[in-house]
Every structure is written in C-alpha cells, then in structure tokens.
Design goal:
The chain is an alpha+beta fold and 184 residues long. 58% of the residues lie in helices and 13% in strands. It has a four-stranded mixed sheet with strand order 1-2-3-4. Keywords: Hydrolase, Membrane, Protease, Transmembrane, Transmembrane helix.
Length: 184
C-alpha cells in the first residue's frame, strides 16, 4: 500500500514532486466532472498552482542558502517541502519565508492585472487571476500566523535569530575589537 500513497508527477531541478492520494482522488473526480464544466478544472489547476508555487519558493530559498532539496509533496489542503536542514537555525527559518515570498511574486501582479483589466478579460482568465491573486494572498496571510504547522511558526523566529547572529554589536563589545583604532 505504501507505493500507492504517493504518485510522482515530475521533477523540478532534480527535486521530485509527489502528489498524495488525498489530493489525487479529488483531482481525478474534478477532471471527470470537468468534461461538462470546464470552470471546475480551471479552479482546481489554479489552486494546485498556488500550492506548487509556495513549495517552489521554499525550494528556491533553500538552494540560495546552499541547502539540498529532497522533495515536494502535495496533499489535499497543504504542501510540504523537505530539505537538508542547515546547522544554522537562522537559515532554516529563512527557508520558511520562501513560500510566502514566491506567493507574493505571483499575487501582486495577478491582483494588479485583475484590478485593471477584469472588465475586458474573459471569465476563464479572470477566474485564475482571482485565485492566483486574492485567494493566494489570503492563503499567504493565514500561513504567516505564528501557529504550529504553519510557516509563520518558523518565519517569525528569524527576527530574534537575526539579532542574535547577524546584527552589528553595540559599543560594549569594543574590548573585543582591538584591531580598530579610534580617531578623535
């Protein structure tokens, strides 16, 4: 039964993307029903794209930090990006910001295009623009809540970690900087 739990869809930069049965069954049902109603298929693909964009954002941040990406798994209501954890907690927290950053890169132009041109665009363009714009932005905001299981749980830890590891030290550390000279 374990082999039927996940279905490999494709790979992105060598990182496999899997779909869990909990998502694949509804997608198959929507595809069957979409034979008569194409709007359902457009909605399903748009929502799937929101999840995939979010997980690709995590992957991109991990690659920029030199961390190895293992896999992307898509479930019914969420996705999961697996990567090799860094020795530095701050870098692990930064990877959490990647999903929301990728979503913002998509929802900002989608909202702008929809706001400016929705009256002249056909419904099959407006529906994905609304989902990739407004719904995507709402999902990003909810995902930033500092609650267990959401990205916000890790994201907000990056602020105190930044001050712990990367902020320039105050004047009290002058004794540790003997190589610097003072000029009056």
């Amino acid at each position: 039964m374990r082999k039927l739990e996940y279905l490999k869809l494709f790979s992105i930069s060598g990182v496999p993307v899997f779909i869990h049965w909990s998502l694949s069954v509804p997608l198959v049902l929507i595809a069957v029903l979409a034979v008569s109603e194409i709007s359902m298929l457009i909605v399903a693909i748009s929502i799937l794209m929101v999840m995939l964009i979010h997980e690709i954002g995590h992957m991109w941040f991990a690659s920029k930090l030199g961390l190895r990406s293992v896999r992307i798994s898509l479930y019914l209501l969420h996705g999961q990006f697996s990567f090799e954890k860094a020795d530095n907690d701050y870098h692990n927290c930064l990877v959490s910001w990647g999903g929301v950053a990728a979503q913002a890169i998509v929802f900002i132009p989608c909202i702008a295009i929809f706001s400016l041109y929705s009256a002249s665009l056909p419904w099959y363009v407006n529906v994905p623009l609304m989902i990739l714009g407004y719904i995507n932005a709402l999902i990003a905001v909810v995902n930033m809540a500092p609650a267990m299981g959401l990205d916000g749980e890790e994201c907000w830890k990056s602020i105190p970690l930044y001050f712990k590891y990367y902020r320039p030290r105050s004047g009290r550390d002058k004794k540790n900087r003997k190589h610097l000279k003072s000029v009056k």
